[in-house]
Amino acid sequence: MKQQNSENLFAASQKIIPGGVNSPVRAFRGVGGTPVFVHRAEGPFLWDVEGRRYIDYVGSWGPMIHGHAHPQILAAVREQMENGLGFGAPTAIELEMAETVISLMPNLEMVRMACSGTEAVMTAIRLARGYTRRDRVIKFEGNYHGHSDSLLVKAGSGALTLGQPSSAGVPEEFSRETLVLPYNSPGAVEEIMSQMGFDIAAIIVEPIAGNMGCVPPDPGFLETLREVCDRYGSLLVFDEVMTGFRVAAGGAQELYGISPDLTTLGKVIGGGLPVGAVGGSREIMEFLAPTGPVYQAGTLSGNPLAMAAGLATLRLLQEPGFHHRLGIQTEIFCQGLAQQASEFGIPLQINRVPGMFGLFFTSRAVRSFDDVLASDAQRYARFFHSLLAQGVYLAPSAYEAGFLSSVHDDAILVATLEATRCAFQKMQIEEEELS
Ligand code: HOZ
After folding, report:
1. Does position 30 have pLDDT exceeding 70, yes or no?
2. Within 13 Å of residue 333, how many CA atoms lie on the same side as its CB?
3. Ligand 1 pocket check: which of 157, 214, 243 to mutate, most ligand atoms within 8 Å of Cβ?
4. Nearest-CA residue for atom 1 of ligand 1
5. Closest ligand 1 atom, CA of 22?
6. Residue boundaries of the structural domains of the chain
7. pTM of the entire structure?
């Protein structure tokens, strides 16, 4: 029998799965080459189908904050599984999940579970429109809020990687209701709100942009959003699918001390299983069916296995000092990278928050979508492949954040930094030869 490897699996997949993948960024179009077909993962490591091991900085795009296959998370799922896989009926574990989320994010009074971040955001937008009786929504360039119609306008993540930030198939009437403003530009928000604030249902934002690399908010930016929403009666929606429970137990809203009206969640809250959630004040949330007129539903919503994995994940990250340690590891890693890049004369900006980082090959500070686009994606691709060949797996796109977990300990960081040193050195030699 022919030995399975990523090349032959990808060739076979491309014949019957569009692009050979079930989510576009995975196709490696942003960096070229063949996607790694993963066989298994444990702790900070992935193994491909040929048994090659990689230190993983993708972490399933965010959920694996405790590393892969954490024994307590697997045990919780196994225990729940013995009772059946799903019922499409209320369960005690959903209640426990809602209580836990509310205790971690005190700004939330009610929570509704969904199956993905996309669904959570789609619900939040419909809810904001139903509650305010307005249609228009403001989003920011390079922010990505899943693939629902009204938000696939100048989006980040895979849409940006493929150079299609605004998707075909979205009726113009829908995208017309979505206004797109530059991220980290409070002046642009003030201006547009002064013209049409009373027509705006919601401003949706990734409080730390994580789908164009990692771009934290400038001081005052989120405050401005809160202030204008209050002034014009629009809802402020924080998309914390990526940052929720990661950058702090209470997410970016805790880190920056800003209370949004609605919060969308995903990734960490499902511990690696499919999940999404939307939460906010009782007054707004009760607009959802069956108490209110805004419809939302889902056969798999609140799936008990996802709840078990998510709850075990949330329990572990409430250990004292968890996010402090994650922040320190992130800092050690990023400072190591910065030092190496400067030694080898490679222009590199590294944005970071606890557990998340973005690498930009540019000498210009990266605060906006334009700054992101001005960085050298070709260099990123070369760096990516050089690391992959040494057993380090970064996001296969210059426009995605990297993630650390609690099991990215000192030894893992040292091993990674040995690989990055070689990658920078190789880059320096190649560039000297070219010049
Ligand atoms: N949009 C996700 C990252 N921001 C990628 C999801 C995936 O490919 O699994």
Report:
1. yes
2. 31
3. 157
4. 157
5. 8
6. 6-69+320-434, 71-317
7. 0.96
